[in-house]
Every structure is written in structure tokens, then in C-alpha cells.
């Protein structure tokens, strides 16, 4: 189990380091990174979420109980973070990054690790996890950034508009509708969306590496610590309680714990940059959580899986 998790984390760490190296060496013009972030946010990431949800194989899985566990635990932890905002930081933009770091998850690591642990069934369980958490975290994060981001507090009507027009949220709901309808995707369109979605993972991680500002690492220690404490301890504990509440056990419960203890995703950085969060801090949280996950993720899954 530990080896499967480490193998899933390794390419993420390498891509972040590569992005940092490319930026420091000025291999690409600075304008490239801003355009790459825009491409990832409006085209590649929506393709990833839409394709993943539209094509997920969900037959024979405890769909309802697993979705209930994942949504409830995510919302509870989000409310805990909001309640503790004044204790975490007085910088609203920085709080949005801590918030994303606490509730978002890296799809790539989750799918790879679930497949390594449970084979084809693991991929199906990962699809259920994505169906539950991706729309939930995107709606929550858009709401929080709209309220606390550097763009200033928005009226409620504008927050709703941000959610309704957000490309990641739209992609999640569109993919869910295709999944629910049973229509499936045309062969040619499915292949295009799959290719675009796959491109989002390396490009997003390269952008994370390029955004790292190592001179700021010392001032990031506190927010990184808060977000990592939530991600690797509080979120899994709340998820464990939810598993007992809804009677979820076995491989499905282990998969739920796995996904809720994953390091935060590169899409967090893209959202922070595009919507007015603290993007440099978000890049630092992503990089640090990815490194910490090499120890924290196997420990959480191995220890807590004994209680489900």
C-alpha cells in the first residue's frame, strides 16, 4: 500500500520541481505561465472533470453512502475552517489558500493510488469519489474566494453568478448530467476530452512549480501548517466518523479515507490565480503538502483503515 501511494506521488513532485527549474532558468518567457494558467483553468481542467464524471463506471458500488460520507465530511471541515478563520490568519486572500489546501484533493494521486490498491474496483471507487467531491469543493472554493479574495467582497448575487459561470463547476454538473442520463459521449468527442484532461495534470503542476517563491517559505510555515493539519488529520478523522454514521466499510471506506487525505490539487493554484486568491501561498501549500503526503498519506490510510 505504501509503495503504491509513493509511486503515485513521485511524478507530481518531479513536475513541480521541473516547473520551478524552468522558471528560474528563464527557459520560457514569463508571459507563457500566465497564458498556460488561463488555458488550464478554462479548457483543460474543465475537460478533465467533465470527462471523468461523464464516463465513470459506477455499477455495483455503494454510491449513495459513499457520496454522503464524502460530501458531509467536506462540508463539515469547510465550516470548521470558516469558523476558525480569525485564528488562522487576518489576511483574507491567504485564508482562501488555507481553505483550498484543507478541502481540495489531487485527482491524479487519488486515481493512481486507488488503482494501485484495488485494481479496476479502485478506479470505480475513485470515480464515485470524484463525482461527490469535485462539484462540492469547487462550489465551496468559489464561494469563499468570492467573499474573501483580493477582488473584494462580492454581493450574494455576484457570488451566485461566479458559481453559475465557473468553468469547473459547469464541467462537473455537465459531466454529472451525462452520467445520470446514460447517454455516454461520442467516440471522437470522448477521445478529445480525455486528451485535453490528461494535459491539465502536467501543465498545472509545472505552473505550480513556476509560481514557487522560495524566499517566502518562512512566512508560509504557519498557513502551510494549518492547511496540512486539516488535510492530513482533521479531514480524515471527520471522514472516519462519517463512515460510521452512514455504515460505509470495506474498500469503499478505505477509498473515502484515501481521497480525503490526499494533498491539494494543482487546480487550487489555477483557481487562486484566476479568481483573486493568494496564488504564491497556494503554490507553496501545494508543493509542501505533496512532499508531506509521502509520509502522511500512507500513515493515515494504514492507521485509520483499521477502524472502518
From TrEMBL:
<feature type="transmembrane region" description="Helical">
    <location>
        <begin position="167"/>
        <end position="189"/>
    </location>
</feature>
<feature type="transmembrane region" description="Helical">
    <location>
        <begin position="123"/>
        <end position="146"/>
    </location>
</feature>
<keyword id="KW-0813">Transport</keyword>
<keyword id="KW-1133">Transmembrane helix</keyword>
<dbReference type="Pfam" id="PF03547">
    <property type="entry name" value="Mem_trans"/>
</dbReference>
<feature type="transmembrane region" description="Helical">
    <location>
        <begin position="284"/>
        <end position="307"/>
    </location>
</feature>
<feature type="transmembrane region" description="Helical">
    <location>
        <begin position="39"/>
        <end position="56"/>
    </location>
</feature>
<keyword id="KW-0472">Membrane</keyword>
<keyword id="KW-0812">Transmembrane</keyword>
<feature type="transmembrane region" description="Helical">
    <location>
        <begin position="229"/>
        <end position="247"/>
    </location>
</feature>
<dbReference type="InterPro" id="IPR004776">
    <property type="entry name" value="Mem_transp_PIN-like"/>
</dbReference>
<feature type="transmembrane region" description="Helical">
    <location>
        <begin position="195"/>
        <end position="217"/>
    </location>
</feature>
<protein>
    <submittedName>
        <fullName>AEC family transporter</fullName>
    </submittedName>
</protein>
<keyword id="KW-1003">Cell membrane</keyword>
<feature type="transmembrane region" description="Helical">
    <location>
        <begin position="68"/>
        <end position="88"/>
    </location>
</feature>
